[in-house]
Amino acid sequence: MYDKLVEIVSKEFHQVPDDRKGHTEYLLHDCLMGAFAMFGLKDPSLLSFIDNAIHRKDNLEQVFKISKLPTDNGMRKILDAVQPSVFQPTFKTIFEHLERLKILESRRYLDQHLLVSVDATGTFSSNKIGCSQCLTKKRKNGTIEHHHQLLAASVVHPNFKTVFPVFGEAITRQDGSKKNDCERKACKRLFPHLRSILPKEKILILLDALYADGPTIKALQAQDIQMDYIIVIKEGYVLEQVKQLRKKDSLHQCQYQKNEKTLCRYRWASNLILNGANQDIIVNYLEYEEYDLEKDKVVYSNKWITNLTLTKSNVSSIATAGRARWKIENETFNTLKNQDYNLEHNYGHGKFYLSTVFALIMLLAFFVDQITRAVDESFEQALKEAKTLRDLRQKVRVLFDFIPTISMNLIYQIIARKVNIRPQLE
Question: 79-112 pLDDT, tens per residue?
Fold first, then answer.
């Protein structure tokens, strides 16, 4: 599976327009695939990747379709001018491939929806380096911090640990001076990308309380977007209406015992006005509690607004979907930051788009890894033999550096001891 996905990425990268003028010694495709290979192999830095490239030349050509790479600074200069939007078709083509293989069927939930969790994360921070795209923040000691953020979306499912990244949208300085305003504006730019990548899917967007506002909901319900939503809510007019319904004992409710010690409680209401400024937006409200019978206290609770119809038969599934929002943080951002992708490491900042380009290519490499982990039998056998993902990745790098190979699948089979590379003694 990994090699087929690399083939798809390579083919799509060949379609990225190269706006450089005059003689170009290095292909844009090779630089893009170089960054993809760096994240695929989990090299700790661009310099390390370029230094190792000379020893990996044949394997980089065979596995990642790379013919020639510049220096690390040369590669940064070439990638800095690439518009982040050019990566959208690659994500779309991979999802089309997953659909043809019927891999997405098991990822649908709640009346055949794809659950798409959206949240923002930091990708760069410095007191010294900045660019025209940087957000700025003034610290108490007077220093100015330059930073980048990426609003990312992943297909999640309550029953799967693996996630499928859909795309990311940079949060940039021109979006506004306040963090919240920036995220909301980036979110409205992200929705059309998601709809373009998943044009035929029923999409159920999962958002935190920052987005429980009229403009975001109107953007989701626009004619060319048409996405359902579950959004965390922590304050506002909806909760005031719920408070009044609670006093009248007018909230719908049900409960069931999950196990010997846990009681699950649901309360909901329909047709509530979002707020005074958006009286035309009608939402439904759901709250959920997990009550520990042994400790005699609530151990988890949350509240959401949604456009989905709430009934006694579906509130449990809707609450489960709402809770899956955390997978964008736990299974996406946490993995990218702490499991060898090094999301917050400065692979290169540049003057224009470089920081965002690296972040999106990393997201793409993570996407390929997640698919491989979810469906590739050779990968699963190699992971079982290596015991941990970190050990597996180290073994992959060692073999990639020292053993001529035609595919990543062969490397997985060697690690899984399905292919013997030791010389046979007569």
Answer: 999 999 999 999 999 999 999 999 999 999 999 9
Task: Tell the residue number behind the tokens 């292919």, with chain if given.
Answer: 419
* End-to-end Cα, the chain, rounded Å: 36
- CA 93 to CA 5: how far, in whole Å? 10
Residue-wise pLDDT for 366-375, tens only, equals 999 999 999 9
User: Reduced to 3 states, what is the DSSP secondary structure of residue 148?
Assistant: strand
Please state, in angstroms and as integers, the Cα–Cα distance from residue 23 to each residue in 18, 26, 354, following that order: 12, 9, 22
User: Looking at the chain, how many residues does it have?
Assistant: 426
**pTM given for the model:** 0.92
- Three-state DSSP state, 327: helix
Residues 6+ apart with CB under 8 A from 199: none
Class (C level, CATH) for 103-337: alpha beta
Does the CA dihedral 389-391-394-399 come out positive or negative? negative
Q: Where in the chain is the domain with CATH 3.90.350.10?
A: 103-337
Residues 6 or more apart whose CB falls under 8 angstroms from that of 323 comprise: 158, 288, 302
| Alpha-carbon distances, residue 395 vs 69, 173, 375 (angstroms) | 24, 41, 20
Give CA–CA dist 402/399, Å, rounded: 5
